[in-house]
Design brief:
Blueprint (H helix, E strand, L loop, with lengths): L13 H10 L5 H17 L5 H12 L3 E8 L2 E8 L2 H17 L6 H13 L4 H15 L10
Antiparallel strand pairs: 1-2
Helix pairs in contact: 1-4, 2-5, 3-4, 3-5, 4-5, 4-6
Length: 150
């Protein structure tokens, strides 16, 4: 997989393989794995410790614990804050990281992905901002928490 041979992906890491599947377009998994490998090489070349640790920390920092869901009560629709299931937490985190990396235009997607992973691991960047927006929405609609299904 690796072009330089310095970084290889851990194929047994379930989160990493799920992330690769989200990166993948049109069924081209080899290309998605190559992009991830290049991103990990970029992280390593910038002097960061372990790309796998950066990746895990980035995912952990972006995963939302609470979100707002629409609930219809008596003809009105309320944004009700609810806890997020672990599978959805991971899916949202991956989606937000990739969306913020894809939003940038320029040279190389793997570079943008590496930068976004490093920023997310340091609790900065667009993906973390998205998580904080979701938390602000939940805090603003805390009064409607009584409508949540218990």
């Amino acid at each position: 997989m690796s072009t330089k041979g310095s970084v290889s992906l851990n194929m047994k890491n379930e989160k990493l393989m799920k992330f690769a599947n989200y990166v993948m377009r049109s069924g081209k998994k080899y290309l998605a794995l190559k992009i991830l490998t290049n991103a990990f090489e970029t992280i390593k070349s910038k002097g960061h410790a372990s790309p796998e640790e950066i990746f895990e920390k980035a995912i952990e920092n972006v995963m939302p614990r609470i979100e707002v869901r629409p609930k219809r009560v008596g003809g009105s629709i309320y944004q009700v804050p609810q806890e997020v299931k672990p599978g959805r937490q991971l899916a949202l985190a991956i989606r937000w990281i990739l969306a913020s990396a894809r939003a940038k235009s320029g040279a190389d997607f793997s570079t943008f992905l590496a930068n976004e992973l490093v920023e997310a691991s340091q609790e900065t960047g667009n993906a973390v901002k998205k998580k904080l927006e979701v938390y602000k929405m939940a805090e603003a609609n805390k009064a409607f928490a009584r409508f949540a299904n218990k």
